[in-house]
Amino acid sequence: MNEAVLAPCDRGIADGKAGAAVAHPRLVLATTILASSLAFVDGSVVNVGLPAIARSFPADAGSLSWVVAAYLLPLSALLLIGGAAGDRYGHRRLLLLGIGLFLAASLLCAAAPGLYWLLAGRILQGVGAAMLMPTSLAILGTSFSGAARGRAIGIWAAIGAAAGAIGPLIGGWLIDLAGWRAIFLLNLPIGAAAMWLGARYVTDRPSANPAPLDWPGACLVTAGLAALTWGLTLASSQQGAPAAAWSIVAVGAVLLALFLRCEQRRGAQAMMPLSLFSSRAFVGLNILTFLLYGALGGMLVLLPYLLIELKGYSATQAGAALLPMPLLIALTAPTMGKLAASFGARLPLTIGPAVVAVGFLLAMRIGAADNYWTATLPAMLTISLGMAGAVAPLTSAVLGAVDARHTGMASGFNSAVARTGGLIATAMSSAILVAHAQQLQSSFHVAMAVCAASAAAASACAFLWLAPKD
After folding, report:
1. What is the pLDDT of residues 420-466, one digit of tens each?
2. Which of 209, 355, 370, 371 is deepest in the core (most CB within 10 A)?
3. Is the four-CA dihedral 391, 464, 258, 66 of positive or negative sign?
């Protein structure tokens, strides 16, 4: 999923924690921005590099889709335990460890002699991102208080969105100039600066009474998502016997069911306390998040591929083609948030995804002979307006659907759900990533129809599951 469109509840992870004065607040803020920018940029830049990677490592559809999925899988599954590990072992320590792992993984990706080495590097990048993302926010939560905390988180979110937005453009330029390996080398100076600042200016200590880490839950959810993603990838790309693919999906479903059972037994010490789901609104909002961000994630993987392979765009042009979306969301989301505060979340969360669905239907007009200004841009602008209307209300609604003690857990879970939606969408779209010519165009149109249906279902979730006052 393109991290230019921030996962809806990343911001809430830092809420509700006691702030403390720090000697160099601006440098602490700079550290968290640089660290999280690693995850934001790599969550978006690889999308425009898929065609070039496919030419370097000729592979089947399932293997190519894993270039994206291998990053999203550990990030989705380990996001919650990454935050808990920071509370237990110290945010500074985990931040530096996460940055170091991310940099080592980036070097592995850049030097990968084959596709499976690249996938190994992407997995390690996802693990590093799962450590540094929640830890960056937790550091903001403990280093600032009151209005200063709100300003710091706002700056963090704005610059993170800008980094994710410009990532495909810079990445495309680097690909055209020096090849796809350069997009991973871009992480090295950013990460080195973040590590130096973090080692010098971030100070903290482990919590006095840390909760035990939920390793059984983390292992089960990771294995379950991996099996589910693998099975759906095989089924989508029509590799092997269909029965084998669906058997793997079934194994993933069983593992996820065991994860829920494990969380039930652990109670309040679970990485995902099931008591959260006693709230009808919380359940509906997370289903909405999965459907909406899954559709968006699938589109942001497939559209650059289509533009490059079918319409002959350079990687730079494909990155630039995506730029209107995060820019429009950044410009209009604050206004949409104010409107949502006046009318409640139900109305914007019903209308916003419905507008996104219309945008996906407009994307079905994109073809080999169509002009960017008359086909691609109108679809992108419509999707952007719909997402702008949904992002801020969704954040507020999720945080308001649970009691104050669970806002951090609820926001972290909602962020993981958003990324899981992109993970599943990537797995299901794997066959499109190796299609060509008319088959690619036809398959893309079918995918956009499915995305439209998913966004429309998200709209229905808001209408049916949220009370009018929400």
Report:
1. 898 898 888 877 877 777 888 999 999 999 999 999 999 999 999 88
2. 355
3. negative
Same domain, yes or no, for 259 and 295?
no
- Alpha carbon dihedral 163, 333, 135, 41, in 10-degree steps, equals -20
Cβ pair 363, 372 in contact under 8 A: no
- Yes or no: say if 15 and 142 are a contact pair by the CB < 8 Å rule: no
Domain count of the fold of the chain:
2
Contacts for 378 with CB less than 8 Å, ≥ 6 apart: 362
- Which long-range contacts link 402-407 to residues 24+ away (Cβ below 8 Å)? 402/276, 402/279, 402/282, 404/16, 405/16, 406/273, 406/275, 406/276, 407/12, 407/15, 407/16
In a domain, 4, yes or no: no
Place of tokens 């289903």: 287
Same domain for 304 and 258, yes or no, is no
Residues 6+ apart with CB under 8 A from 186: 41, 45, 170, 171, 174
Q: Which amino acid is at 283?
A: V
111 and 178 assigned to the same domain: yes
Report mean pLDDT in 10-residue bins for the chain, 470 residues.
56 52 80 88 83 81 79 86 80 92 96 92 93 84 74 74 78 90 92 93 70 83 88 72 82 92 83 82 92 92 90 89 82 71 81 96 88 90 90 79 71 85 86 78 93 96 80
CATH code for the domain of 82: 1.20.1250.20
Task: Indicate the residue among 270, 285, 305 that finishes a domain.
Answer: 270
Domain end among 270, 294, 309: 270
Rounded to whole angstroms, how far apart are CA atoms 355 and 214?
Answer: 39
Nearest to 68 by CA among 50, 51, 92, 86: 50
Contact (Cβ atoms closer than 8 angstroms) between residue 75 and residue 422: no
CB < 8 Å & 24+ apart, contacts of 240-243:
none
Asked, for residue 346, whether it belongs to a domain, the answer is: yes
